[in-house]
Amino acid sequence: MLTLEAQEHPTLEGENLVIFSGNSNPALARAIACYLEIPLGNALVKNFSNGETRVQIEENVRGAEVFVVQPTCGNVNDSLMELLILCDALSRSSAKSITVVVPYYGYSRQEKKTTGREPITAKLVANLITVAGASRVITVDLHAAAIQGFFDIPVDNLVAMPIVVSYFKHKGIPKEDLVVISPDAGGASRARMFAERLGAGLAIIFKRRPRPEAVELMDFVGEIEGKTCLIVDDIISTGGTLLTGVEMLMSKGAARVFAATTHGLLAGSAIEAIEKSPIEEVIVTDTVPISQEAQRGKITVLSVAPLLGEAIRRNYFHMSVSKLFS
Ligand code: R5P
Prior knowledge:
This protein is α/β, with parallel strands linked by helices. The chain has helices at 26-36, 76-92, 121-131, 161-169, 188-198, 240-251, 270-276, 292-295, 305-316, and strands spanning 17-21, 43-47, 53-57, 65-69, 97-102, 136-140, 155-158, 178-182, 201-208, 216-221, 228-236, 256-264, 281-285, 299-302. Helices cover 29% and strands 25% of the residues. The strands form three sheets. It has a seven-stranded mixed β-sheet, with helices on both faces. Strands 1-4-5-6-7 form a five-stranded parallel β-sheet, with helices on both faces. A two-stranded antiparallel sheet has the order 2-3. Helix 2 (76-92) links the parallel strand 4 and strand 5. The chain starts with 16 loop residues before the first strand and ends in a 10-residue tail after the last helix. It binds ribose-5-phosphate (R5P). Ribose-5-phosphate (R5P) is lined by residues 109, 183-184, 186-187, 213, 215, 233-242.
């Protein structure tokens, strides 16, 4: 008989595991359940007429290992409350363990004080999730890896890079023509890992934020004239960082510009601005929902459902997840 480690994909049929979803990315939750070949658990998650979140777990979870899929995006505070209330309901329903699967961790950019009299909201959210009853967290590309330490429960911070690299390699762009760009100093190590995997060159833009959500480019290190540039970042929110970077690269003689980002928050008029810019393609993942309208243009969506599904399966069977990082 094969050991669990030897069986790459042990089946979950008949196992005591249930996946629930809130309302922030039900399509991703369904894709994960489909990948694992199990149905989603039944729970009612809606609002009372006064705006309060109402949750009812509609099946027995006593002794079950439950996974709650809920990126804290869109209406971030509502998504977060749904997640917390789902955890509370599951904990009071005697689930054996509650793993929160938060593919995008909202408030992650508020992870330190930069001036005086500011909150560290990423830590506050970690406290709330833990107090609500979560026993483990699965997430993807945290804005700052140190946020793992904000939790006193285990955190699997998965990386979307292998999915993006494998897609990008299929474009067949010669390595010597390709340069990976970090749009700020903080993203340099992520960009270096992409460059290593693609066998490409590396360049770094130095960015300053004179005030929240404003971008000012300071400096640039690298050689990009006549090259194809791939800007890599964890988040596109307003698109300010990306599009100011694209302008700089074009002005320095880049031949083509692509971008790859894990979390396409695409706030405000980001989609329109991307469509109008000279960028050829923006690759994002489905950690947060991307509208069909956005996908008709330059935005390509790659799914993290198999990655998260595998992480769930491996956690359930107590198998190593380190394989998912390679
Ligand atoms: C910043 O450190 C992040 O890595 C992203 O560059 C930033 O959050 C993107 O935000 P925006 O699209 O609003 O410039």
